[in-house]
Design brief:
The protein is mainly beta and 259 residues long. Helix content is 0%, strand content 43%.
C-alpha cells in the first residue's frame, strides 16, 4: 500500500534481480533493512529464501521453490512519508535500495490529551481549554466517528460557554474528521473551566478507560475593595499618636488575601 495508518501491519516483499531486472532465483542473500521512520523498530535481517522454504540452485525446474525473494511484516509508528531501505549485509549486492514512498497517517485515537501542559488562572475567571485525541503511539489523530470525552475536577466547574451555565462535570464532543500528518489539522474540542478556590487542582478527561489529567494552579482573584476591611486596634484614636490597624483583604470570591 502507498497509504497506511500508524500501527497497521504492512506486508513487505523484497526481491533480488539480475542485471536484466529479472528475479535472481538463485540468490539467497541475507538482507538487512530499515525504514526512514525515526520511531520504527528495525526488523532482524531477512534471507531471500521465501522464508526458509527454497532450495538454492543454479537451474530450477517447474514446481521448484526458488530463492531470491522473501516477505516480512513491518509496522510504522510516526505520521509522515517514509521509505523502506534494504541492503545486502554481506556486500554481495552493492548499494542501498529504497521502496516507493509510503504515507503514514495517525492510528486510531484511543486517549484524550490537553493542548496545554498546565493551566494557571485567577479565582473566579473562566479559562478556555482545548483537548484532542491521540493514538497508542502518542500521535495526534482525528476520530472516524464523533467521540464523547468526559470532564471532571475536584473543585472547579465546566461550561461550553464562557458565560455558563456551569456544572461540576461535562461531556464534550471531539468531532470526526480525516486524520492528518500535521497535528494542527486534526480535530479538537474546547470548553471553559472556572474555579473559585485558590490552590492546586486538576482537570480530568476520560475516553473509555483512558484518563489523563491537566494540572491547574488557581491564584487569588482581584481585590474586592467594597468588602475588604481596615479595623483599628482601639475604638478611639488620638491625633498625632500611632495606632495599630488590622487590614483584611478579600478577593471578589471572598477568599481571604491578608490579615
Amino acid at each position: 500500500p502507498t497509504v497506511v495508518r500508524a500501527g497497521q501491519s504492512v506486508e513487505t516483499s523484497i526481491y533480488a534481480t539480475d542485471d536484466n531486472n529479472v528475479l535472481d532465483k538463485g540468490n539467497a542473500s541475507t538482507i538487512g533493512f530499515d525504514t526512514t521512520d525515526p520511531n520504527d523498530f528495525n526488523p532482524a535481517p531477512l534471507e531471500l529464501t521465501q522464508n526458509g522454504t527454497c532450495t538454492q540452485k543454479t537451474q530450477y525446474e517447474e514446481g521448484d521453490i526458488y530463492c531470491g525473494t522473501s516477505k516480512t511484516d513491518l509496522i510504522f509508528h510516526t505520521p509522515g512519508t517514509w521509505v523502506v531501505r534494504v541492503a545486502d549485509t554481506a556486500g554481495g549486492i552493492p548499494g542501498v535500495y529504497e521502496s516507493a514512498p509510503i504515507t503514514v497517517l495517525p492510528g486510531t485515537p484511543t486517549t484524550p490529551y490537553f493542548k496545554l501542559s498546565s493551566l494557571s488562572l485567577k479565582a473566579g475567571m473562566a479559562s478556555s481549554v482545548t483537548i484532542g485525541l491521540k493514538d497508542v503511539y502518542g500521535n495526534s489523530a482525528s476520530p472516524d466517528m464523533d467521540q464523547r470525552v468526559a470532564l471532571s475536577a475536584d473543585s472547579g466547574v465546566f461550561s461550553s460557554s464562557p458565560d455558563g451555565p456551569w456544572s461540576s462535570s461535562l461531556e464534550i464532543t471531539v468531532p470526526h474528521g480525516a486524520s492528518a500528518i500535521n497535528p494542527d489539522l486534526n480535530t479538537t474540542a474546547s470548553f471553559y473551566y472556572l474555579d473559585f478556590k485558590p490552590g492546586q487542582d486538576s482537570i480530568r478527561a476520560s475516553l473509555g478507560a483512558n484518563i489523563v489529567a491537566l494540572p491547574v494552579s488557581v491564584d487569588l482573584g482581584d481585590i474586592d475593595q467594597t468588602n475588604s476591611q481596615v479595623t483599628p486596634s482601639a475604638q478611639s484614636l488620638v491625633v498625632g499618636k500611632e495606632a495599630g490597624v488590622t487590614v483584611q483583604l478579600v478577593d471578589k470570591n471572598q477568599n481571604k488575601i491578608k490579615d
